[in-house]
Amino acid sequence: MKLKVNEIFKSIQGESTYAGLPCSFIRLTGCNLRCSYCDTTYAYEKGEDMGLEEILTDMELLGCNLVEITGGEPLLQEGTGGLIKKLLDEGYKVLVETNGSLNIDVLPEGTIRIVDIKCPGSGMSERMDWKNIERLRDTDEVKFVLSSQEDYTWARGIIDKYALLDKSKVLMGVAYGKLDPRPLAEWILQDGLEVRLQLQLHRYIWPPGTQEGTLLRSTCRHDTLSTRD
Hints:
The protein is of the alpha/beta class and 229 residues long. Helices cover 24% and strands 25% of the residues. Strands 1, 2, 3, 4, 5, 6, 7, 8, 9 and 10 form a ten-stranded mixed beta sheet that branches. The two termini are 20 Å apart.
């Protein structure tokens, strides 16, 4: 079984309740959405076919117990579940970041699922699989990326409608360059909303245009550091 991998690298986890921790990232190729603020358009098509054992070897080289599988949209590839199962069996803690448009229950038990609920500003909110809210576990996390105050008001309504705070951890962040985090902090405080405000730490440490973390292999950057080319 092979997966199409866009890049593998080690960085500081920039989002979720695991923000600030060293983390190995496996970015898979392909996405079924086209969000207005997407910062990983390079992962839409480019990728290298890799076997599961090959990917596991890369994880050993990077040396982090925390691993995130992201994209693109990792649930598009049938082999994603098999890779996660192998990582879990090897003792890794596995996060999966998904855009919320596909059934999250295809992922193995023990996966920490970070589900992005697409706000109207993304241009993709109509593509959500709302049944995923019923599938949430208390170890999962739900993320809203906001582009405006209208997005905030919409997200607050979704949180209330589906009682999200009773189902999982809820995160709110801003689309980089579209909304300043200060007004978001003020809205959360004014409303007494018990969500976690998250900043994209990696964006502040490595601004756009600079290399993030330690890049092991990539099909889209010229500074690949692959040890097996």
